[in-house]
Amino acid sequence: MCWSSAYNQVQCGFFLLGAFWFLVRYVHTGRVTDYIWQCVFFLLGFGALEVNVVYPALGAAYTFLFARKYFLATLPLFVPTAAFTLIDRMLAAPQAFGVYALHFDRALPTTLVTYWRWALVSNYLPGKLETVLFAALTVILLTFVIVRTMRRDWLPVFCLAWFTIVLAPVLPLRDHISDYYLTLPTIGLAILGGYGVVQAWRKPVAWKLTAITAAAAYMVLMVHFDRIACRWWNQRSWAVERLVLGVERAHQLHPDKTIVLDGVDSPLFWAGIFHHPSRLFGVNAVYLTPGSQDHIEAHDATGQVSDFVLPPDPTLHAAKTDQLVVYRVTSNRLKAITSAYEEATIAHLNPDRPRRVDALNPLTSYLFGPEWYPPDGSGHWMPKRATLRIGGAKSPSERLHVQGFLAPQQLPQPPVSLRVTVDGVQLPEASVTLGNGFWEVSYPLPNEAVDKKELLLGLEAGRTFHVAGDDRELGLNISVIEIR
Hints:
Order of helices and strands: HHHHHHHHHHEHEHEEHEEEEEEEEEEEE
Radius of gyration: 29 Å
Number of helices: 13
Strand content: 15-25%
Number of domains: 3
Structural class: alpha+beta
Largest sheet: 5 strands, antiparallel
Shape: globular
């Protein structure tokens, strides 16, 4: 398993196979107890993984192909699936953007082919070998399915149906194609491959030798390259562990300073920085040195590398006020290089104001006016009016984006206006909808804001509120202000 959190794939597989086994027993014996046990395993599967909702479709496909008189018995299983899906959609707000946004578009067939390819051959095979093996296996399996279907043998069709049905819930996740999603769908392909070998074994010697040779060649290749993959995952896990424990130790040595890392590469960033593992040890923020994004592969659908890179001006300000420590990431440990970094790099940093201000970053606090309340862990609360300094736009097409989070007391309230001025120029008023925990509004910028090193923003909330036990006048909770 490539992720420790993927254990739920194994759990769900246990419940899917358990329920299916009792369905097969029910078809062969007709005992009601087998049908009841199928229902028990099916319902318990919802506690493992949402993909469990596909089981009724699997049961319906099996009974339709092999025991049609039991087909109607699978229909009641769709009721828990429908109820679970409805409740899940009501509790989990749909995501319009990000890696978990659903896309029902022309990308669905492409995503299906990608998963089919990954299911048949290792991603670590050399390019040409992978292509040849993938094409050969596809032709062999589909030919086998077609031939057996023409002979009214429906098991190969059911195996392909298993692969497609179980994979269906993740196909709309166009921007989150992950190999561990294949754990459950490939059960169908495993049965199909095993069934193909069994059928060949019932044929004359030539077919037996062909089946043994093909299976052996496949196993030799897959085991070899899967060992390479295992070593890669193992080495990366050790690298992440060294990084996280090194950051924890740096925080123990410098509890009042912000940790900035230099020399982080793409694999380490996406595995050990992007998911904020250091928060497990009480380190809320770890940043990268300015320019680090130039050495890290971008995955815009997953997230922005620039969100983790400390802008030059806050770095310069923090170095002058002794608010940060810099560590270089090496193959074995983190190496403290604060003094050397400041001597070699600080003088060359651009002192222009950053165009993205993270309200939770303590090193950007000097950009906030005196009106703001101290950060509280989720953002920066402003009173009715507040000010902020930020870098100017690069082109007239760029806009000002303001993001924030809502307090529970705000959720049932009607929308609130947020008025913004840029160097005294009033921007069009925007409305913050209070129906969700996260909000974002954007504004067009005046031409005078282009190419300026610093802009003074004035923010004014349409109304304020108070929380019981807190005498502060609260306007809006700001998390990020950015010009892009």
